[in-house]
Specification:
By secondary structure, the protein is of the alpha+beta class. The protein has a single domain (about 5-215), classed as BirA Bifunctional Protein, domain 2. It has 7 helices and 9 strands. It has helices spanning about 15-35, 85-95, 100-115, 145-150, 160-170, 200-210, 210-215; strands at about 5, 10, 40-45, 50-55, 65-70, 75-80, 120-130, 135-145, 180-185. Helix 1 (about 15-35) crosses helix 6 (about 200-210). The N and C termini lie far apart (about 45 Å).
Length: about 220
């Protein structure tokens, strides 16, 4: 027995217990994830951090992939464009600067937002990292943008400054060690299904909703 009730920690967040839970939950998610993302046949072979990923290459940092992580107060279900995906980053930048492609990408983000679980957040985030001895990642900077704010879907006006930031980051990928994630932040206390046996299904629904994002990142 583990001291969890759904994704709630009885005595506060505990990293070791979260690692154990990630490992256990990943086994339940994997069959459906591999059906939704048939190219993602590889799995993270061991747990060092509090996350799990499914990917198509031998190295997780060289393929676009679905990922989930357990953090303090949050479950994150995301599609990741890692720093090792050079051609995918180039395609992403071209998408952002081409009017027709950008509008198509915005439509994908609108669907991601409208299908989000109640009281969750739909997020685009960039993480800049460096590595100690190529093993331990250190996050130098994190930028999180609510998709609702980006698209003006939360009763605010779309703000072009955020699109400019995203374009600048994509254009400068070769100079910095960026990772891009698009997905959902599910709060332990606010998202009711995380407190019961529906949690796995909720996470799978998130990954189904994110499939168009995965497809948009991959180069044919």
């Amino acid at each position: 027995m583990t001291p969890f009730t759904g994704f709630n920690f009885r005595d506060g967040y505990d990293r070791e217990l979260a690692q154990h839970y990630v490992k256990r939950v990943s086994k339940e998610l994997t069959p459906d994830i591999k059906e939704i993302y048939p190219n993602c046949t590889e799995e993270r072979p061991r747990v060092q951090g509090v996350w799990w990923a499914w990917y198509s290459s031998k190295e997780v940092q060289k393929s676009v992939h679905p990922k989930f992580s357990v953090a303090n107060e949050l479950i994150r279900c995301s599609i990741v464009l890692p720093n090792g995906c050079n051609k995918e980053w180039r395609q992403f930048y071209q998408t952002l600067i081409t009017t027709k492609s950008l509008e198509k990408f915005k439509q994908i983000l609108r669907k991601v937002y409208t299908k989000k679980p109640e009281k969750s957040r739909a997020i685009i985030s960039f993480i800049q990292r460096h590595y100690l001895n190529r093993i331990k990642p250190v996050s130098d900077a994190v930028v999180e943008i609510n998709i609702a704010t980006l698209l003006g879907m939360d009763k605010s006006k779309p703000n072009e400054i955020w699109w400019s930031l995203i374009k600048d980051v994509a254009a400068s990928k070769n100079r910095y060690n960026y990772q891009l994630e698009i997905g959902y932040h599910l709060n332990y206390e606010e998202v009711e299904d995380l407190k019961n046996t529906k949690a796995i299904q909720l996470m799978l629904n998130c990954f189904r909703n994110l499939k168009p994002v995965y497809d948009s990142f991959n180069v044919s």
